[in-house]
Structure of beta-N-acetylhexosaminidase:
Amino acid sequence: MVSSRTNKGLSAMNESSDFHHTVHLDLKGAPPRVSYFAEIFPLFRQWGATSLLLEYEDMFPYQNDLKELAAEHAYSKDDIQRIQQLAEQNNLEVIPLVQTFGHFEFVLKHEKFQKLREVAAYPTSLCPTHPDALDTVKLMIDQILTLHPRSHRFHIGADEVYHIGFCERCKKTMASENLTNQQMFFVHIEKVVKYVKCKYNHLTVLMWDDMMRFCELALLKESKLGDIVEPMVWHYVTQFVLPNDIWDRYSKVFPNIWLASSFKGATSSSAYLTNIMYHVDNHLAWLSVINQEKHKFKKICGITVTGWQRFDHFAVLCELLPQALPSLAACLHVLKSGTFNSDIHLTVSKELEFEPTLPLIPDRTIFPKCKFPGSDIYLQMLDFLRFELDYNEYIHSDRRQTWMNDYNLQRGFLNPAHLQQLLDEALRFLPELTYLPYPDTLILFKCLWTH
């Protein structure tokens, strides 16, 4: 039984047709086939989504001077058009996102673009004073927007710029112009935003907020970004730890803001199963914030439900999209209704054909049946959870560590009485290991078994 958790912070806003429930699709890892979008976009709309934030990264078909940026399996131009057509058919506005400062790994990892690094050893942040930096960003923006002529909004990223003012050129610029790191950030962002606004004056520009989250009010006003950009305030925890005065400061500079929650990819960089209740609680926390702070702004434009595929370009995958669809469904229902209770839990369970109801926290003791696009992946991840937990319990058991540890195996110093029981227990893992795409793992296991 799910206890009722309620907050009506969005009730009035949901009556407005222009308050967005945006689904973020991070395509920098295990990007879906276009045919899969055709299956899930109708569900997004059914659950209350109004728009998509598409973060292509290296899945965009960059060309000419930027051709190195496109992955071998990048979408084609026809794919990009088809994705937008599918979105339009389901009344989902498409908002493309291009990183323009931080999280620039997919660009700076290439030898051709290493000169643009702020720190030569790290491919994370762009050097804003390099003569080719802004031109490269402009090319990326132009190629993206050329293939998105019907978009009304554009997101420039700009989160987690970990390295500013490190290179000698930046240090000299900052010294000669008396700039702080924060001001250096604003100078680059202003150039990017003004380029977009000048060339594509129909677009509203969005950006992540974290790089100005602790900025003093006077400096925020001095940045002159208030009239040309709408910040998207992201926070993915259940107990908020944002600065106490953040809404007062932002409201004095930005008349319009966006918010960002998460439905997956925000708890652990190596997680493979989504804790749905964690993300439901994150959304309920956001509803409380909206209820308390909405009067300070001209408009809270919407909330983006983020779903990260990796923590950065070089990280392993976390929480594949198909297995996280139940979490997305639950979170969008929370935004639509302002609450989460047994009725909503049952509704989501029925929509995804769960028998019994959808598990809200990963649990190896529950063996559900379900049917939705990608449900086989969801069920396989549950199988893997059971296997991993059982295997770890076996490996770390007192008996295994006492009588079949590395010392015993290397010296053949083994007690057959204990070893037989350990091997009998180990046999239950063999069928599962035969499905692993790593033959060395199976060979090692068989060697231990036949020792």
Observations:
- The mean pLDDT is 93.
- The longest strand covers residues 256-264.
